[in-house]
Amino acid sequence: MASHIKCPNCGIYNTNKDYCTNCNTLLSYKKRRELAFAKEEKERRERQRIQDEKSPSFYEKYKDHRFLVVRVFVKITHSIWMGFMAIGMFIAWLITAIAA
After folding, report:
1. 63 and 75 in contact (C-beta within 8 Å)?
2. Ordered DSSP codes for 48-70
3. I need a labelling partner for 49 at 20 to 30 A (CA). Which of 7, 12, 16, 70 fits?
4. What gap in Å lies between CA 76 and CA 59, rounded to an integer?
5. pTM, to two decimals
6. What is the mean pLDDT of residues 72-81?
7. How far is CA 64 from CA 78, 85, 88, in A?
8. What's the rounded Cα separation, in Å, for the pair 77 and 63?
9. How far is Cα 43 from Cα 30, in angstroms, rounded to an integer?
10. How far apart are CA 21 and CA 5, in angstroms?
11. What are phi and psi of 67, to 5 degrees?
């Protein structure tokens, strides 16, 4: 079935086209959504990058500290935290596997 779309810019009717044959205006709402989503995703990534640069995590902030005691403390704390997270993920996986 052919779709007839009127161009909002010049008023020409186009059949089964994503762009107007007269003025090259984007007509497809799907492509408009995809382009808008891609633009929003790019902006979100840029905001996240800026946020990460402005406020680094505890580990990132102190892992290269000039004092050895601070570096050792941060690495031990990070290792303990990762261990707790691994145990927690295993328990969650186990509960899910038993429930299924």
Report:
1. yes
2. HHHHHHHS--HHHHHTT-SSHHH
3. 70
4. 10
5. 0.46
6. 95
7. 13, 23, 28
8. 11
9. 20
10. 11
11. -95, 135
- Domain ranges in the chain are 1-55, 57-100
- Looking at residue 24, its pLDDT comes to 85
* Dihedral angle of Cα 56, 61, 63, 69, to the nearest 10 degrees: -150
Query: Does residue 62 contact residue 70 with C-beta atoms inside 8 Å?
Result: yes
CA distance 98 to 80: 27
For the cut 80, the answer to whether the pLDDT of residue 90 exceeds it is yes
Instruction: Output the six-digit token pair for 33.
Output: 């959504």
pLDDT digits (tens, 9 = 90+) for 15-51: 888 888 888 888 888 888 999 999 999 999 999 988 8
Residues 6+ apart with CB under 8 A from 65: 71, 74
Q: Quote the tokens at residue 37.
A: 């989503």
